[in-house]
Amino acid sequence: MVEAMIEIEVVYTAVDRQLLLSVSVPAGTTVRAALLKSGMHQAFPELDLSQCPVGIFGKVIADPDSRPVQSGDRIEIYRPLLADPKEVRRLRAAKAAEAKARNQ
Fold first, then answer.
1. Which superkingdom is the protein from (predicted)?
2. How far apart are CA 66 and CA 63, in angstroms?
3. Residue 91: count of CB within 10 angstroms of its CB
4. What is the pLDDT of residues 14-43, one digit of tens each?
5. SS3 call for 8
6. Three-state SS across 17-60?
7. CA distance 78 to 54
8. What number does CATH give the domain 5-103?
9. Within 10 A of 24 (CB to CB), how many other CB atoms are there?
């Protein structure tokens, strides 16, 4: 019997480039297995697809080893943040307050 295939997308954005791949996988494939099948690690050898955090349409997947993909899913591979967004906003606000105080 022929397995039903579904179409998904896998996307990764590095600092200098991004890549979106369309992948056909058998129905019931897990998120992690779909990542490995995508070949994304060939384009980005620094990726450890067995450990990296991932999400589907912006929602983090807690257990990608057991969550099956669905037709049309876009799996997003996340990279570590270079700076904490809260800290960046705090520093920007402090700098703006300092500039405003100087101009008064």
1. Bacteria
2. 6
3. 11
4. 888 999 999 999 999 999 999 999 989 999
5. strand
6. CEEEEEEEEECCCEHHHHHHHHCHHHHCCCCCCCCCCEEECCEE
7. 6
8. 3.10.20.90
9. 11
